Amino acid sequence: MNSYLLILPVASLVAYSQLMVKWRAASLPAPGSLTAKLLTMFADPLILSAYAAALAASVAWLLVVTKLPLTIAFPVYIGVTFVMVVLGGHLILGEPLPITKIAAVALILSGIALGMSSNS
Questions:
Q1: What digits encode the pLDDT tens for the residues 41-72?
Q2: pTM (2 decimals)?
Q3: Count of domains forming the chain
Q4: Side-chain half-sphere exposure of 11, counting CA atoms within 13 A
């Protein structure tokens, strides 16, 4: 079970990265050309922190895959990340959280629990 906890920092870093990019990219001024937009985004320290978090998650993932079977680690990582992004999108970005999305999150969490229990 302790090895599964290694997935949480990876999922947290990826969720942070996705939420931060969405939040900052949507709030930055949008200059005309694509090059100007990219320069504006890559000059933003919070967007840079999001990419640093994604890089750190990639490095942390190396540790996870040495400790867990990939067929278990990857679905758990994707599911946990999905749940974190949905909750973060609602709490941080103010995105709607309809009952269908809540049901989807519950099904994903059930699938994670089922997948983890079948491996023990």
A1: 888 999 999 999 999 999 999 999 999 999 88
A2: 0.86
A3: 1
A4: 21
